């Protein structure tokens, strides 16, 4: 690997990590805590699954995941039902309200970034560069 590729990789990881960390730290409307959002997103990605499977995926205890899922159920964002393959087990799935809550949270974050981009903190040329870089970053992610 060339030294240029190493430098670009390091710079990208620093910049993208800082952006993601900061966007996640800024509170947005929606009423979901970070653990709730992570659990709901994981459940949306995986489809109907068990609490213990979600806990393993998130690398947290089953008890912590159970408490988070209980909160999501109380808010009507997650439903539980019998496993179609094994009626003794319970599977959880995201409700329509849960999907909407995730969509609202994502939209709020996109609006936050858009406000900063439109605030004058970036020149038109820099905005164009960011627009060109976005699909490249997505392609990079797909190849990792």
Automatic annotation (TrEMBL):
SUPFAM superfamilies: Winged helix' DNA-binding domain. GO terms for molecular function: DNA binding; DNA-binding transcription factor activity. It comes from the Bacteria. Residues 5-142 form the HTH marR-type domain. Keywords: DNA-binding. The keyword Glycoprotein does not apply. Gene3D superfamilies: Winged helix-like DNA-binding domain superfamily/Winged helix DNA-binding domain. PANTHER family: CONSERVED PROTEIN, HTH-TYPE TRANSCRIPTIONAL REGULATOR RV0880. This is DNA-binding transcriptional regulator, MarR family. It comes from Amycolatopsis saalfeldensis.
